[in-house]
Amino acid sequence: MAKYVIITGGVVSSLGKGIATASIGFLLKTHGFSVNPLKFDPYINVDPGTMNPYQHGEVFVTEDGAETDLDLGHYERFLDTNLSKENNVTAGQVYLSVIEKEREGIFLGGTIQVVPHITNEIKERVRKVANEHDVVLVEIGGTVGDIESLPFLEAMRQLRLEEGRENVLYIHLTLVPFIKSANEFKTKPTQHSVNELRRIGIQPDIILCRTERPLPKEAKDKIALFCNVSKEAVIEGIDTENIYKIPLIFKEQKLDWLICQYLSLKTKETGLKIWQAWLDFVNKLENPEREIKIAIVGKYTSLRDAYKSVIEAVNHACGHLSLKPNIKWIEATDLEEEVKRKGKEILKDYFSDVCGIIVPGGFGFRGIEGKIFAIEYARKNNLPFLGLCVGLQCAVIEFSRNVLGLKEANSQEFDLNTKYPVIHLLESQKGIKKKGGTMRLGAYPCLLKEDTIAFRAYQAKRIYERHRHRYEVNNEYIELLEKKGMVVSGIYEKENLVEIIELKDHPFFVATQFHPEFKSRPLRPHPLFLAFVKACVSEF
Ligand code: GLN
């Protein structure tokens, strides 16, 4: 029988509930437990796939092609496991399924209500992921007090009633601000937030306090007293630049043992290798031999969350090589405007101090020309380049325009009537009208060509990588592209789709139609990111 750990957040959003959940999961894993996380998102969208990155940050894609919350990325990275569509449930999905059941007549005769119909559906989703796991971690998105999250909290209250006290644990993450003028920590927001939870019938067992600086004992004791938890159950979550240190911070305060004790969980294994490997990785991150500067040219650069997995994949590769990444963010639209005003000479002002360029994924026309200028610079100056999804598409457009001389080459996404549609709509996308969940999504096999950079990086013939796009390279141009030095180094055999391209006469110019960043893990950095970073320091 599974145990359930429910994680809620209070006071403000963006406290790092996802990372806290992932860290707890990792700690439980080091005790030998199998852990399955579930993220509830209280919005009405069926999935985040239809949201703008500014609304939502990155959309994380699972192996089975679900478009999910970026917290699933944290879970996969910390737990080193592949999750699926069952691990992220939105209010939209819950309501949709209840309404569909109502239409089918499953509840015939009844009035359909939030309690019990919606709450039952929520509990069903929780129990579904329990399946043979020791612990289910349930993270409730949003902040306690939001109207939207009420049915989820109510369902979690019922869960303890049904599963038994010893099987369900509530952890509440709050903010404990330090007020400089008073030179004091303030526990009042935490007290209010816990009161709000109690009003709904949930008494938290453990309180995680996000804080800028170490919490004095008095503040902790006060929180324990006013929030009705034992003193050792007030855990400090101090700000840290290195998210991979958070499990260490929690373990120091014995959070893992506390959870085991509260849930009567008996450690299955101790001294597991993953703990030591994790410590080694954190140690490498903390003590880099030197720094390297990498440019990321994107169009949502003011919101770093939009590139979460890309950033982490760079961190993993750099950490592994004892390097400290310094990311230079370049907004593609700014670059585009400046080059158009001042000419291509200004590109060196942007890139002469970096040792590599990444062009990550994106949708729509805005900023495309800026990305293409950056790619041209990388190609001509032998600067290592890694293109991801739209990054590959831009690389093909750049090469077609500037090497093949097809000046009007473009993607049909950016110019429907382009004379040279070197990137065009996937066959399977033609006729698709509904926008939600209809892209080419999830993992597909890719066959690598030997004697290529890609093959050298992966050291494998067949790989599986995750996709999220509607457009692809137009095969009619491949012969021309290859004649001039572009190499198609990976394909999806079944439908003959281009998956990886690279350049022959360049130290490292590689672009993928898929998103390798989703599969990078702290202890298993992604081979392409590793190869790219090595190329940045001339070691590939
Ligand atoms: N916009 C492009 C497409 O749909 C690329 C998408 C992406 O970069 N994820 O094909």
Topology:
Layout: E1 3-9, H1 17-29, E2 35-41, H2 53-56, E3 60-61, E4 67-68, H3 71-79, E5 88-90, H4 91-104, H5 114-130, E6 135-140, H6 150-163, E7 168-175, E8 178-179, E9 184-185, H7 188-199, E10 206-211, H8 217-227, E11 234-238, H9 246-252, H10 255-262, H11 273-286, E12 290-298, H12 308-320, E13 323-331, H13 332-342, H14 347-351, E14 357-359, H15 368-380, E15 385-388, H16 390-402, E16 409-411, E17 420-425, E18 440-448, H17 453-458, E19 462-469, E20 471-473, H18 478-483, E21 486-492, E22 497-503, E23 509-512, H19 527-536
Glutamine (GLN) is lined by residues 361-363, 389-390, 413, 468-471.
Can you tell me about this structure?
With 540 residues, this protein is of the alpha/beta class. The chain folds into 2 domains: 3-278, 3-Layer(aba) Sandwich (Rossmann fold), CATH 3.40.50; 288-536, Rossmann fold. It is 37% helix and 23% strand. The chain has a 9-stranded mixed sheet, with helices on both faces. Strands 5-2-6-1-7-10-11 form a 7-stranded parallel sheet, sandwiched between helices. It has a 3-stranded mixed sheet with strand order 16-17-20, covered by helices on one side. A hairpin with a 5-residue loop joins strand 3 (60-61) and strand 4 (67-68). Helix 5 crosses helix 6 (150-163). It is globular. The two termini are 49 Å apart. The mean pLDDT is 96. Glutamine is lined by residues 361-363, 389-390, 413, 468-471.
